[in-house]
Amino acid sequence: MATFTFVVLKNCLSVNGTRSLWTSRLLLASHLPIVEGSKKDGFKFESEEEYEKNIKIKILSASLPFVNEFGWSRQTISAGAEALGYPGVAHGMFPKGGIELIQYFYANCNAELNKILKSEALAIEENPAKKKKPPEVFVKEALEKRLKMMIPYKSTWPQAITLMTLPPNVPNALANILTLIDDICYYAGDRSVDVSLTQF
C-alpha cells in the first residue's frame, strides 16, 4: 500500500518527463522565505504586503520556542509576538491559528533539508572522487535528517499531526509532504516519470 501510494505520488510530481522541484511550492508560497523588496539608492523599500509578511514570519519564528509550553496554538503565537515587543493580540494576524505555525515550521524544515541535500549534491559534483550514495541509503539518511529537525517538538507533534488532518488543513499538509518527497527523490537522482522505483 505504501509503495503504491509513493508510486502514485511520484507520478503526480512529474512534468514533461523530468522531475521538478517546484511541485507544491506554489501552494506553499506564503510559507517560503521572503524575497526582499526592491532597493533604491541603498535603501530597501517594501510594499505593505511584504512588510506584513515579514512581520508574520518574525512572529512565527519567535513563537517556536513557546511550542513545548503552549502547544501549536494561538497562545503560542501570542507569546512569540510579545517576545518581539508586539501586543499579544497580534495573533489576530493568523486567522487559522496554530496550523499556520505548523505550516511555517514544516515548510522551513523542508527548505532547510533542501539546502542540505543541494549542498551535498554540489559537493559530489565538484569532487568526482567522492562516491554517490545508493538511493536507498540516500533516502534513509535524508529522512533521518528531516525527522531530527522535529526532535525539539517531539512532545507536541501529535497535536500538530491532529491539526494537519483536519479537512481545511489537508491541502497544505499534503503539499508539504509532496515537497519533501519530491526534494528527496530529486536529489537521490530520480528524474524519471517511470512507474518503476528502480529508475534511480
Automatic annotation (TrEMBL):
Entry keyword annotation includes Ribonucleoprotein: no
Domain Ubiquinone biosynthesis protein COQ9 HTH: start-end pairs: 52-82
Top-level taxon of the source organism: Eukaryota
GO molecular function, one term: lipid binding
Pfam families linked to this entry: COQ9, COQ9_N
Biological-process GO terms, alphabetical: ubiquinone biosynthetic process
Compartments reported by the entry: Mitochondrion
COQ9 C-terminal domain segment(s): 170-196
Pathway terms, separated by semicolons: Cofactor biosynthesis; ubiquinone biosynthesis
Cellular component terms (Gene Ontology): mitochondrial inner membrane
Keyword terms: Lipid-binding, Mitochondrion, Transit peptide, Ubiquinone biosynthesis
Biological role: Membrane-associated protein that warps the membrane surface to access and bind aromatic isoprenes with high specificity, including ubiquinone (CoQ) isoprene intermediates and presents them directly to Coq7, therefore facilitating the Coq7-mediated hydroxylase step. Participates in the biosynthesis of coenzyme Q, also named ubiquinone, an essential lipid-soluble electron transporter for aerobic cellular respiration.
Family label: Belongs to the COQ9 family.
Name of this protein: Ubiquinone biosynthesis protein
